[in-house]
Write a structure and sequence with these properties.
By secondary structure, the chain is α+β, with helices and mostly antiparallel strands. The protein has a 5-stranded mixed sheet, covered by helices on one side. Strand 2 and strand 3 form a beta hairpin. Helix 1 packs antiparallel against helix 6, helix 8 packs parallel to helix 10 and helix 13 packs antiparallel against helix 14. The chain is globular, with a radius of gyration of 31 Å. The protein starts with a helix and ends with a strand. The N terminus is likely disordered.
């Protein structure tokens, strides 16, 4: 069963939940905005007193009257509608908020209202529209350095990619949110970022690391005693255990989540937990338990106006009735599921409906068989007339195929000649690149190892030199020699593969102060040795430059294969490169990319450099 509803919910509670943006305006505005947020938090956690606290928030808003307080109240009201499934009201509030005129210090509210529109589009399964709104919010938060909200937006985008089943990209954005965790102020948002990151790790077959991260989320939630954070951590555990097929543990956590949801009146988590349990019952072939829990789940989904849950749940319930032999009820539920989401109903769902329709209408088969025999006789009578046309068309197709065959042979011959010429140029570039690499390493030996040896020689002639100091110099010399030796070794790309070789190189070059992370989205990549050597040396040079000059804390290396384009990106968070140096320098890099017949783009600012290389395969 799809996990989309879980991530749609986590998008709502896990991102941009803080009431304000960067501090601005009067002290009274900030105080009143905080009070409004507190009232809405109490309204959400106290179902019986919800109306009272919302009225208090409205009272503070009207009394203050500032744009900041009005926007805070409007945004939180939109979130409240989102919890109750009133999507049209949320969309209207977001549009109203985007029409407001904000001072520069309050411009982050526009990002928050775009975030609301992204939530609504996500709930309505308009995932690409949802991504567009999140990207607009991202740009606003980046422009005002609101890393707290930016982390939440990254988290939302990761959740959308989960819905699209693009787990690698989901992990990429979840990692971005995780890297901003130290700048996130609210423990609730921290918990959701950690839970999303944990589930992304689990989806990409890293279950042990996923459980470790989820334990951190649970620890924060328990320490702060925040109910929403605890709910997110609990359901995160449930989803991880469900995906790992540890169904007993998953059921335990879903049950805990349902109990906590009922206690606090937050029905969204109760709904998602019941959906999770339903999918587990199906995996365990416990069809009677699915039927026993069907009514309460469907009533709750209708109350919250969650059509996606209604559609997917009715599909499971229909299959359960079919397994129990109640084909009429099974057909009814599957047909309702199909009607709810007919535009995107999967082939598998339609197949189930058709199978049940055949079983349910089995008594009508006799009549249908007679009709089919009549149609068959009629078709056979017309078959003779069509045979002549078919034979004629077949001859024409064969003639056309011969023309196409010889034409393709001619084109392939020309292409083979072009490939030979390109490979000759590539080999020349590889040789030139290797010569450049040898020169660079010669300078490293002269300026590094030779200089260190001179220093050691001088210290040995000095009687006062500390022995431990010489030992440390020798250890450093040993490490430098090892790295240079590794870089000089020839690479057999037929055995290791380009990306694996680069991963190994990055592992060697990573230091306690600078982490090098490689992301690989190149399943099915095939390159010859010459191109692999050029790309390897290019990435090696970029990483070497970043380590030597950028003073960075992390380096990201990403390989992505899109159709016939290989996209390589090397990004660091250190010191940038002056535009003059980009225009006049980096000649060996530019020559290698030209030899690959690729395109090079370098973007640099004060806080990092990004180099993108596009190679047509």
């Amino acid at each position: 069963m799809k996990i989309w509803p879980l991530f749609a919910l986590m998008s709502i509670i896990g991102s941009c939940t803080n009431s304000g943006v960067k501090k601005g305006g009067s002290a009274q505005d900030r105080t009143d905005s905080t009070a409004i947020a507190d009232y809405y938090a109490k309204a959400m956690l106290s179902a019986d007193s919800s109306a009272f606290y919302k009225a208090k928030a409205e009272e503070v808003t009207l009394e203050n009257g500032s744009v900041k307080c009005l926007a805070t109240n409007l945004f939180l009201k939109g979130k409240n509608f989102l919890y109750s499934g009133q999507l049209d009201s949320v969309d209207a509030i977001a549009n109203k908020g985007l029409r407001m005129q904000f001072q520069p210090e309050d411009s982050g509210f526009r990002g928050k209202f775009y975030n609301l529109k992204g939530n609504v589009a996500g709930y309505r399964r308009n995932l690409y529209a949802s991504l567009e709104y999140y990207v607009k919010a991202q740009k606003i938060f980046e422009s005002i350095d609101d890393y707290n909200s930016l982390a939440g937006i990254y988290n939302n985008i990761a959740n959308n990619y989960f819905s699209l089943k693009d787990y690698r990209t989901a992990l990429e954005y979840a990692s971005k949110a995780y890297k901003l965790l130290h700048k996130v102020q609210e423990d609730r948002i921290k918990t959701n970022i950690l839970s999303t990151y944990a589930i992304a790790l689990n989806k990409t077959e890293q279950p042990q690391k996923a459980l470790f991260i989820e334990a951190k989320a649970d620890s924060i939630a328990s320490a702060t005693n925040d109910v929403l954070a605890k709910l997110a951590a609990t359901i995160g555990y449930a989803e991880i255990y469900k995906m790992s097929e540890q169904f007993d543990k998953a059921e335990t956590y879903y049950a805990k989540c349902i109990a906590l949801s009922k206690k606090t009146g937050i029905k969204h988590f109760e709904l998602i937990s019941k959906v999770g349990l339903l999918s587990i019952y199906e995996e365990k072939h416990n069809f009677q338990q699915i039927i026993d829990n069907a009514d309460s789940l469907l009533l709750l989904a209708q109350e919250l106006n969650n059509l996606d849950v209604l559609q997917s749940s009715k599909r499971i319930i229909g299959r359960a009735y079919a397994q129990k032999g109640e084909f009429k009820r099974g057909f009814d539920y599957l047909n309702q599921s199909y009607d709810l989401y007919s535009t995107t109903a999967g082939i598998e769902n339609q197949k189930n409906i058709n199978e049940l329709r055949v079983k349910y209408e089995s008594e009508k088969k006799g009549k249908k068989i007679l009709e089919q025999r009549y149609q068959l006789a009629k078709q056979q009578a017309e078959l003779g007339k069509r045979q002549t046309i078919i034979i004629t068309l077949s001859l024409l197709v064969m003639l056309g195929a011969l023309v196409v065959f010889f034409r393709r042979r001619l084109v392939k011959s020309k292409q083979a000649l072009l490939i030979l010429q390109m490979e000759r140029k590539l080999n020349e570039s590889v040789q030139k690149g290797e010569e450049t690499e040898r020169k660079r390493l010669a300078f490293e030996i002269h300026d590094g190892i030779a200089a260190t040896l001179t220093g050691i020689s001088y210290k040995l002639t000095n009687d006062t030199t500390d022995k431990e100091e010489i030992i440390q110099l020798l250890k450093g010399l040993q490490e430098d020699s090892r790295k240079i030796a590794h870089n000089l070794m020839p690479v057999d790309f037929d055995k290791t593969g380009l990306v694996d070789t680069i991963k190994a190189f990055c592992g060697r070059m990573s230091t306690p102060t600078t982490e090098i992370i490689v992301l690989d989205h190149t399943e099915g990549l095939v390159l010859n040795n010459a191109r692999s050597h050029l790309i390897y040396r290019t990435v090696q040079e970029l990483i070497g430059n970043a380590l030597k000059y950028a003073q960075c804390n992390s380096i990201f290396v990403k390989f992505e294969l899109v159709n016939t384009i290989l996209r390589i990106e090397v990004e660091d968070d250190g010191l940038g490169i002056a535009q003059a140096d980009i225009d006049s320098g980096l000649n060996s890099l530019k020559e290698r990319v030209a030899a690959l017949q690729g395109r090079l783009a370098i973007h640099s600012q004060e806080q990092g450099t990004s180099v993108e290389i596009l190679v047509e395969l």
